[in-house]
Amino acid sequence: MSEEPRALRVADKCVLIVEDEFLIAFDIADQFEAAGARVLGPFADVPTTLQAIEHGDVPDAAVLDVNLGGERSLRVAQRLAQDDIPFVFVTGYDSNCLHEERTLAPILQKPFAFDAAVAALFAN
User: Fold this and answer.
1) Strands 87-91 and 14-18, how do they pair?
2) CA-CA distance, 116 to 82, in Å (whole number)?
3) What is the CATH number of domain 3-121?
4) In the predicted structure, residue 44 carries a pLDDT above the cut 60
């Protein structure tokens, strides 16, 4: 995918980043910002993420790490699904072990290609 279509898909979108590994979180955020998105977060835990969403920070899409310091991000995923907000899970785990997550959204293996996330989030 060329830079132009990616930027057109992402430009002016608000993307929620939920990732507890600092370097990974900011790498993901930098890539979305470079493509023209506004980033919400990154957030490193479920309670803080849910609080941000509940207080009016509603994203257009989200990237969720499956495991956040020992807690799974399923509550965040369920909240996003309730509002029809597209999201992807990212993980270092074998995605075959993530049965509940697979029913909710695409799963991308870390390290993942930024273009794969954009394609999954902004298919239209």
Assistant:
1) unpaired
2) 24
3) 3.40.50.2300
4) yes
